Amino acid sequence: LPEQSGIWVVPKTTQTLNENAYSAVNAMLCRFYVSGHTGWLEEEHFASLCQAVKVYKEIRSDLKGALPIYPDGLCDFTSDWNIAGRVCKDGKTVYLTIGHLNGEDEKHISLADFAGRMEKAQILYPSFAGSIRLEEDAIAVNAPQKAAILVKHRTEMKKMHRLSGASFYTFRLS
Known about the structure:
By secondary structure, the protein is α+β, with helices and mostly antiparallel strands. It has 2 helices and 12 strands, in the order βαβαββββββββββ.
């Protein structure tokens, strides 16, 4: 397959730093392709794009065979937040992409359906777009509108289901 289900990251000179980072975060859990006039980007935007590529290269081996999760249910065009994740084969490492479009700047993402005791969480990219804190069975995210972050956390997974011989983690429908 020529593109192998890639997601294109197309940073634009007309977008803010958060909007360009949002584009990169959306591609982090898939195959990451960069396009556009990257040479025209301001230095800060180009450095952010380079950071995104570096982070993706660091996590891509973890994502091979990782299973999808949707802790907040499937999002649609009216969603204020879009949250998707991948549970790695080790069952302990979870990557979440968390995008904030509208509404309140803080979101509590319950992982009770997926995780046992949460051990550690960190923002991998971008470092400037938000903050997180661990709660008992949730991650509290604070991010401005039109911003997105990639979070990695370690946990003990507690729910895994089987369907037709394939493993997958459940998600909650809103």
